[in-house]
Amino acid sequence: MGRHIVCLTFDHDHLSGFIARGLTSPTAVSRGEYDMVVIPRLVALLARYDIKATFFTPGHTIDSSPQAVMPYVETGHELAHHGWTHRLPVTLSREEEEEEIVRGNDSIRRVSGRYARGYRSPAWDLSPHSIELLLKHGIQYDSSLMGHDYDCYYARQGDVVELKEPFVRGRETPLIEMPISWSLDDFPHFEYMRNPNGSIQAGLMNANAVLENFVDDFTYMTEVCPDFGILTYTFHPHVIGRGHRMMMLERLIKRLAAGGAAFMTMEQAMGEWLARRQAAAKAAD
């Protein structure tokens, strides 16, 4: 029987995502603060099924509301890097991006006792400098790219992308990419947003319909990757925390467990992926 790993991940943005969009009214702030109600419920749900998850948490969240972060830090979940603000790296200068990485890592170390091993870009949009800077500051894996569905790979640096020229791939780096997908993220499915530019994100999808999509992605992994695969789901506490969605999340956990899923943190899954690669390389020698 194959080994099929599931990583449940939570982007604990708190207020930072709204502030980065220029949404600072009392209503916007309250939407972010709702996660303080949800976090204890999430931690209890994960404990009920003996699951360790990964929380990608901006430094702004940690420094603004450490009481919202400590429930999952103290119960052994992985605390990973999600910037300090929730600004997209691609919108920042190299110096600004490095400041985000350093400041966010300092916030993580203060509450967890160690620097982050993993990173996820706010809104999943890396800059040309991101991979270099992440490696410089000791990050071992990234979870912002979408070049695979059920396998990790090594992130590239130095791609040449020009409109009227063939695409040229850069060199592989030691940074392990643990890919994600918007289709496995709760935010576009569920969150209703009226953005400052006037655009509307409708959200508010039926949770049971989304559940079927989420389960089918796991089932498909077991069929096309019978020996080994890793599947990552992304949730946001203030989004998944509504009652009917929490019930959906629990149903998801039950159905994945019944299908043979092994739940791990991202760091644990990375370790297993590396061990398998090393064993395969040794066997080939």
Report what the structure shows.
Residues 26-264 form the NodB homology domain. By secondary structure, the protein is α/β, with parallel strands linked by helices. It has one domain (3-284): TIM Barrel, CATH 3.20.20.370. The protein has helices at residues 16-20, 26-33, 35-48, 59-64, 66-73, 94-112, 130-136, 186-190, 207-224, 237-240, 243-258, 266-284; strands at residues 3-11, 54-57, 78-81, 118-119, 141-142, 153-157, 171-177, 193-194, 200-201, 228-235, 262-263. The strands form 3 sheets. Strands 1, 2, 3, 10 and 11 form a 5-stranded parallel β-sheet that branches.
Topology:
Blueprint: E1 3-11, H1 16-20, H2 26-33, H3 35-48, E2 54-57, H4 59-64, H5 66-73, E3 78-81, H6 94-112, E4 118-119, H7 130-136, E5 141-142, E6 153-157, E7 171-177, H8 186-190, E8 193-194, E9 200-201, H9 207-224, E10 228-235, H10 237-240, H11 243-258, E11 262-263, H12 266-284
Helix pairs in contact: 3-5, 9-11
Domain NodB homology: 26-264
Protein name: Chitooligosaccharide deacetylase
GO molecular function: hydrolase activity, acting on carbon-nitrogen (but not peptide) bonds
Which fold name is given in CATH as the topology? TIM Barrel
H/E element order:
EHHHEHHEHEHEEEHEEHEHHEH
Task: Report on the biggest sheet.
Answer: 5 strands, parallel
Task: Give the number of DSSP strands.
Answer: 11
Form type: globular
Q: How large is the share of residues in beta strands?
A: 15-25%
Mean pLDDT: 95
Helix content: 40-55%
What top-tier CATH class fits best? Alpha Beta
Q: What's the CATH superfamily, by name?
A: Glycoside hydrolase/deacetylase
